[in-house]
Amino acid sequence: EARQRRLDGIAHDIRGPLTRLQLRVEALQHGRGFDPDTLAGLQADLNALLALDRDLDGITIQPSNPPTHQEVNVEAFCRKLAKSYGPDRVQITMPPVCLRLDSHLLQRSLNNLIDNALAYGQQPISVHWRQTAAGECKLGVWDHGIGLTAEGMSRLFQSFSQADSSTTRKYGGTGLGLVISKRLAEIMGGT
Question: Among 106-110, 146-150, 165-169, whose mean pLDDT is lowest?
Answer without folding.
Answer: 165-169
